[in-house]
Amino acid sequence: MAASKAGFIGLGLIGGSIAKAIRKYYPDCELIAFDKSRESLALAVQEGAIDTACSSIDDNFKGCSCIFLCAPVSCNTAYLSQLKELVGKDCILTDVGSVKTSIHEEIISLGMEECFIGGHPMAGSEKSGFANSKAHLIENAYYILTPSAKVPEEKVEEYRQFVSSLKAIPIVLDYKDHDLITGTISHLPHIIAASLVNFVHDTDTEDGLMKALAAGGFKDITRIASSSPVMWQQICLKNSRNISHILAGYIHALERAKQAVDLGDEDTLYSMFESSRDYRDSMPNSSAGPIKKQFAIYCDIIDEAGGIATIATILASNNINIKNIGIIHNREFEEGVLRIEFYEEDASAKAAALLQKYRYVVYET
Q1: What are the ACT domain coordinates in residue numbering (predicted)?
Q2: CB 3.0–4.6 Å: which of 27, 70, 163, 334 could bond 216 by disulfide?
């Protein structure tokens, strides 16, 4: 795909990051964008991430080799009718939403299948908006492509190579398969995390002992419950059929677990924990999936004045940024007293090696 001109409808975290990646690898590509936030557009122009800020979806978008729909899922489908007359026969229209069925159905109803290749970069951040976008956000992240049935194979291959040139990892899937897969490995875990946190909240003691004692394993498995309520509300509404079916299967699995506990079934209980351990341990140690990996180490320290400050100073003096640091009071599932979280995997590895050099006992996650 000749990246000569690319347009963006929405310029938040994902749209901004893709625009910056294109600017990095295709510096001569003309980049234009429309966003409801004038501040985001002004910042993008100021930083040189885009060339033209558009006040509406207009003729500026004619002649694009690719147009990215990067607005919220519910908005992307509404923009399609405005784009229909602006998309040329050689243009690739794509999106970045985490639910594909609804937009594919709209594409079919509008007769736009010959140009649409759905997209889902499995990357993100706890921070949102263009101000937090970065060119390497999609680097080494899986980027799912869901071509419409009428898109020529050569156009799909051209776009796959383009995504790869941005250093992402393209995978081509049927859009219905995409929604079932992400429903299971991404949407379900978020629902489980949210419902588990709410369950603890609703059943906590009057003096809040559950909240006070919750740490370690509990906080790790419910971390994603801190995600955007609006985004996950929309995902559940847009992928409701798949999620309902997946939830029914998961509830059945929980019922089998309850039955094993009720019956004191030693073999079934052992098998459940053994098989889950083995399958999880076989998963690649990569952050390219839909749920962002944490980069953290645990460290043994003596409880004395200045202990944490000393470690923070060692890391800071070696230009290693700390995302979070704190004492683990509930260490039932953890090794080490101090938990240190980093923004990047490289920083975590460097910190572990550095602290070991200073004779600290370090446990890597």
Answers
A1: 296-365
A2: 334
Q: How many CB atoms lie within 10 A of CB 218?
A: 17
Q: How far apart are the first and last CA of the chain?
A: 40
Residues 96, 84: Cα–Cα separation, whole Å:
18
Q: Residue 88 in contact with residue 62, Cβ under 8 Å?
A: yes
Q: 94: which 2 tokens?
A: 């794509």
Per-residue pLDDT of the chain (365 residues; tens, 9 = 90+): 667 999 999 999 999 999 999 999 999 999 999 999 999 999 999 999 999 999 999 999 999 999 999 988 778 888 998 999 899 889 999 999 989 999 999 999 999 999 999 999 988 766 678 998 999 888 888 999 999 999 999 999 999 999 999 999 999 999 999 999 999 999 999 999 999 999 999 999 999 888 888 766 777 788 788 877 888 898 899 999 999 999 999 999 999 999 999 999 999 999 999 999 999 888 776 555 666 667 888 888 766 677 888 899 999 999 999 988 887 654 444 555 788 989 888 899 999 999 999 888 887 66
Nearest CA-CA partner of 141 in 122, 160, 128: 122
Give the whole-angstrom CA distance, residue 197 versus residue 60: 47
Q: Which two tokens stand for residue 68?
A: 């990215």
Cα–Cα–Cα angle for 227, 233, 234, nearest 5°?
A: 110
Q: How far apart are CA 282 and CA 277, in angstroms?
A: 9
Look up residue 107 and give its two tokens: 């594409």
- CA–CA dist 132, 71 (Å, integer): 16
Burial class (CB within 10 angstroms; exposed 0-12, middle 13-18, buried 19+) of 116: buried
Q: In the numeric block, which tokens belong to residue 31?
A: 């980049």
